[in-house]
Amino acid sequence: MTAALWPLQLAVYAKATGHAPLMALVSGVYDEVPEQVAHPYVSLGSITETVSDAHNQRGLEARVVLHVWSKYRGFKQAAAILDALDTALDRQPLTVSGFRDVSIAHEQHQELRDPDPDIRHINVSYRVWLTKA
User: Fold this and answer.
1) pLDDT at 1 (0 to 100)
2) 103-132 residue pLDDT tens
3) In the chain, how many H helices and how many E strands?
4) 123 FRET partner, CA 20 to 30 A, in 42, 63, 82, 101?
5) Residue-range domain boundaries for the chain
6) Nearest residue to 119 via CA among 66, 65, 41
């Protein structure tokens, strides 16, 4: 089974950065966050894959984690960014190179207070199901 790690990351990045309402709220979406990036922004986190074959079909179930970062006092801004991220990704068509029958759904999210008291952070995970093409 070929991993979907890189093609899945590319697909999620393209979907997020191609969503104008999300991009209007953040300075960017990053895999590798620049040193002096302006808040708020979204960063790509980890991807976990589990083999999920069905009869004669090769498949994967993946968990994609993204992070919303904000310096707004309280979670209002980060929550608005999460809403826009969900509009871009949750139950939306996703094209992943080398795979078919791809579906994505919001799994969970969590508000976190960073050790830096000025930073607010929401991590969000999406469950993705893919069948090898």
Assistant:
1) 57
2) 999 999 999 999 999 999 999 999 999 999
3) 3, 5
4) 101
5) 5-132
6) 41
Asked if residue 130 lies in contact with residue 99, where contact means CB atoms within 8 angstroms, the answer is: yes
Contact 43, 12 (CB under 8 A): no
Mean pLDDT of 93-109: 97
2: left (phi over 0), alpha (psi -120 to 50) or beta: beta
Distance CA 63, CA 84 (A): 19
**CATH (one of 3.30.2000.30, 1.20.910.10, 3.30.70.120, 3.40.50.10420) for 5-132:** 3.30.2000.30
d(CA 72, CA 58): 44
Tokens of 89: 């990704």
